[in-house]
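Re: export button greyed out
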Amino acid sequence: MSSPKQQQDSVSSVAEAMAPESWSKVSCPCCVSSEVEPLVLIHLAENVESSTKQWIMSMISAPHKAGGAHLLVHPGEDASWGRLVVAAPRCTLLRATEELGLCKADKEGNMVLFSFHDRNNFNNINDMQKFLTLAERQYIVQHELESMRAVKDQRIPGIPGDKGILKSRQNILQKLQKAGVIQDVFPLCDEKKLNALGKDWYLKKSLWGQPLESIHAYFGGSIAFYFSFLDFYTWALVPPAVLGVFITFFLPGAPPPDIPKADNSTPGPGSSDASDDLDLSVSSHMVQAVFSMIWSTVFMELWKRRSAALSYHWGTLTLTEQFQEPRPGFQGEMGINPVTGRREPLFPDWKRQMRVGLVSVPVVGLFLGLVVLGMVGFYFCESTMSSIHKASGSIITATLSYLPSVMHIVYTNMLGNAYRTVALKLTEWENHREESAHQNHHTTKVLVFTFFNNFAVLFHIAIFKQDLQLLRKRLSSLLILSQVVNQLTEVLVPFVVDRFYGSSQKELKEDDPAADHMQAEGSLPPFPGLFLEYIELLVQFGYLSLFSCVYPLTAVLLLINNITEIRGDAYKICRLFRKPFSPPEASIGVWQTAFEVLAFFSVMSNCWLLFLAPRIKAFTQDSGLNPSVVLIFTVIVEHVLIVVKMILAFVIPDEPEWVQIKKQQIEYRTILALKEQKVKRSKTAELPRS
Amino acid sequence: MSSPKQQQDSVSSVAEAMAPESWSKVSCPCCVSSEVEPLVLIHLAENVESSTKQWIMSMISAPHKAGGAHLLVHPGEDASWGRLVVAAPRCTLLRATEELGLCKADKEGNMVLFSFHDRNNFNNINDMQKFLTLAERQYIVQHELESMRAVKDQRIPGIPGDKGILKSRQNILQKLQKAGVIQDVFPLCDEKKLNALGKDWYLKKSLWGQPLESIHAYFGGSIAFYFSFLDFYTWALVPPAVLGVFITFFLPGAPPPDIPKADNSTPGPGSSDASDDLDLSVSSHMVQAVFSMIWSTVFMELWKRRSAALSYHWGTLTLTEQFQEPRPGFQGEMGINPVTGRREPLFPDWKRQMRVGLVSVPVVGLFLGLVVLGMVGFYFCESTMSSIHKASGSIITATLSYLPSVMHIVYTNMLGNAYRTVALKLTEWENHREESAHQNHHTTKVLVFTFFNNFAVLFHIAIFKQDLQLLRKRLSSLLILSQVVNQLTEVLVPFVVDRFYGSSQKELKEDDPAADHMQAEGSLPPFPGLFLEYIELLVQFGYLSLFSCVYPLTAVLLLINNITEIRGDAYKICRLFRKPFSPPEASIGVWQTAFEVLAFFSVMSNCWLLFLAPRIKAFTQDSGLNPSVVLIFTVIVEHVLIVVKMILAFVIPDEPEWVQIKKQQIEYRTILALKEQKVKRSKTAELPRS
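Workaround output, generated via the alternate export path:
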């Protein structure tokens, strides 16, 4: 049986299998090198004509002026083999580094905006494997492939009909993918590095710490940021976990973790018999709520600082996405970009805003309405059913009483699936110019829906039913269940499926090591992205911050979950999926906003849950306070806490001082450059060609 | 009797009075010009030795390298005359334009960051009077004078003792001002331009529109921004004014403007006899509150867009204050600025933050506590006095019943004066590097106190006394009284004083026109700054947005006030005060934040005032609603409105699209420049001096 290790194409094995003389030739003398590092694999359709394959290879190696990608390409063992292996010459890598706006270490070790013409002032400039990380090199190859655009109307050889017609400025890669000629493009993995990384990571004995630099080097910016955030978040859970344990087990009168006390959902005056403990319980509730509010704010502010520091170290403080070519899916009329002066498709902002405001927002609202409708329907059916069951009491009605739940689950699932499709279509149709804007809008749409889906029921229980006991039960079962289910579906199931599926494939090709590596690529599923991982963290953060005062052990459960999650996710991304492309990124983007919004809502939520808490109700009744007074007091506390939260967020700077200085240095350098550059220009204009 | 017109030094009259050959000589050939425009007057002490005067003149005309200001200076009619007239050569003006980071129109008419070496690509480059506005030229002279720093330890000739010792890097102008040698530095006025401006401005017949471009050209950025804001604000008051009139006079059941209905502060069930009108009244209240909330948000967002457009037109999108020398009052240990690499005093950020957080904030809090204490004392004394008066009823107790009010006014005034001194001292001590940061911190301190002072009583009436009738009375009297008092003190009193005081001075010097102009300068008081003007607008905006639902005619009164205010302020700044220096600015700065904070609080305020409104109370009692339900309803409405407000603020972009594009163009140019500049540098490094 083959181990998962052998199932991915790896850089070294591919390099060995290929004849070095078959690489396409570089056009510039500085890039000639005896060693070529294969970076990306292009998977062609089986029935592709050799003229088409030839044409694709010529485009990939053609210079940018001719609409090509200026990369190196290798046809594999023979012309009929359905793969292309792509590498990048030094010039292309360096020019792309400049174009992306990456910062690199100069001779003094400062990260400064990379400039191709100043390349000799940078460290490791002659060793691309040190200068750029593997992930960066592979991303650049993808970026260049995606930037290929036809320079004139032409036909793609070997493809008949409309599919083969390529218009001027049309995206070549997209066209080939739509025509079914290119089936897949993915980065090759590096077995050695992956093994070394795994040892430091999911095989590590210590519970804490992850090899973030190696993760960044191997997997790239977006994935490294996810694991950095997960790491930071896990550390940050320690204080609330300690407090939760203290409140649950050491304070008298606090709610015991699982054996609920005899206070009913509607506490009569009789339920407040344990009035000795009431004072303590109320105050521990309050401590928990206030602590949770301050903690979530401080956590997010400190993460921003950490994120800025990471962004500096990884050279992404100055990404210039808005000055690059638009994303491949971008549609628009050809025109001149007013900022860069390049000819490219343009799409007016107001049209996009109209599409967002007049179509996307109402459609999302409609789906949220459908969620609420489903919930209302569910509660209505359930109460009808249970009253019927109570009246008759037969087995049929007992069985039927499960019907509303089943129907609700089916309904919710169908709605979720439909929504996912609609959200992606809508975002495509909104036609964002930058990839990051596209991602942010898509993420926001899915997020709002997920929030609603996950928390609507809990808020319904908390506010309309006012049944905190039920809420606590539901919350703890959700937390424990979702963790077990997540870990199972995320790691165990793919692992088992992969073993079974991978081994059945392996047996066929045991005798051909090179072809084995190439063909085995198909056996690993593509990486599904970090979306669901972030959603999972966010929903858990929601349980923690929104309802923490109801169930103080939330943080402990989350802490345990995260420690396993780190290893699970690490194993998964290393072994169970194909290596993904991962663009350089400056932060976790829209997810940061989502966490902040949740932290903001948590203030309100905690205040109102406290107000509704039966113990506090009993306490006020005992003290003879007017409920209106308590209500007004709650409102005042809520407002004060929100103001405190805002002040805290304002007072803690979003960037450490040294990052601010580095940023200002870069800014100052560009301003100085602008002034100096003009000297040269105006002097040469005054004294032409002297 | 002399008219106020003749009382300021004017550019033309000064130029006539001075011998052109007495100007100090320029060092660079390009700046030699037959015409020298006098810009700034330096007022020396009477007993200044001629050696000192000579030294000051030499420093002013010395080049930057020698610690001088590189300006032109004229000693006046003879060496013993106690004034210096300063002008600026073309080189100095252009270099300072570059240093300030101003944008200027290039040959194609686009505003781009000015670069000295690229100067020939800019419009009007050979005519400084067209290239820079008068205000900009004068500000540059001030800026250069303030930047003079000694290059080595030395003595100022003619000043004995410690006062005359100048250390290396010490600020020369500050030293001379502290030593009492230089008494004043102010810009000369231009009588012709001022007259032309006045005709278009305060003498204009149409109610609307101000000559903003001329104001900017003559008075400079900060003053032009004030009047732009005032203009915009006045226009923005039209919709709420129309709504207020409609609600007050055309809706049945609305509260009549001045004759209060017979509803007491504690409405019994009997007071709701006019229950036919109640529905309408309640809904008009609500309309007013919701409208006010949306209006204030939209108003501020639209102002931001207007402000960005103005900033582009006035070339201040790219000000580079953080890369310039620190402000003159800045203290610190000598070191190397990590960003610019210049030698200058440094002061660590964390120390400043400690000073702000551990000293300034508690001190401000203490003063706010004293305000509350005063208010509590006042109410306590008043109730004691009135009960004594009721008990005895003599004339003595009747007189004594005024005592608390008098004492409170005296106390408030003393506290206000003390606070103003403390706020300035604290801000100086916080030691901000940039002038704008200094201004912002100072303004914030005074603002918080003023807010408290003005609104604490009103909120006390609204929330603790719950007496909306009294609130309405107080509000209308405050609005009307403060307007009358403001207009009187701001315009009439200075006008009368100036006439009387100015004429008595004039009679002495009628025979000497040149000396008359120079000496008369002292007769005009220095411009007190825009602080009080902004505070006035802000407090009025507070009355409008915080309490609008109590007194719907507020907007009408403010509209009338603003229309007179525009003319009053215009007349004042043109005729009653000395022309001030006014730095180029990109927005109204911290005032914008203050207006936004007020607009935010207005949502809460309006919701709670509505909740407390006696009519609504009566309405709910009639409808048999539980007060708790109404309270919860209020809370929900408040939260929804805040969310709506945030969404509105987020959805309306802060800058118009074309300004965004212009900004991106500037950014893209600087990045391109950085790349290009490096070409040259690395090429020259590779091929030395070929």
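Confidence is low (pLDDT under 50) at residues 1-7, 254-278, 503-516, 679-690 of chain A. The button fix ships in the next patch.
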